[in-house]
Amino acid sequence: MPRLGGHNPSWRGGKVSEPIVLEARLGLPQAEALLDRLRQPDALSEELAFDASGVEESSAAWIAVLIGFLQARPDSTAPVRVIDPSSEFVDAFSDLGLFQDLMRMEFS
Questions:
Q1: Is the pLDDT of residue 15 over 60?
Q2: Which residue segment(s) compose the domain that 27 sits in?
Q3: Of 28, 48, 78, 79, which sits with the fewest C-beta atoms within 10 Å of its C-beta?
């Protein structure tokens, strides 16, 4: 599958984390958990990967946390990757008018 979105050829390695398997429903509790995870010191230095294959519903709060993190990261940091996103995951970004932000990530 071709890579879409935020591929960063200037990133030269670092820690690659295990994919974070997302729950079916990404509500406020999941947004708070994501925020806690993204506040960890290694969040900027490792490649983050989200397995979004089982996502059925994404809240605006969860998406806002992720987009805020993407916008705060310097361009030279590790990419954020989405693995096998469900159509519901992609549609949630589109429904909020944030498809361009979704495309800042890599897809596999």
A1: no
A2: 17-107
A3: 28
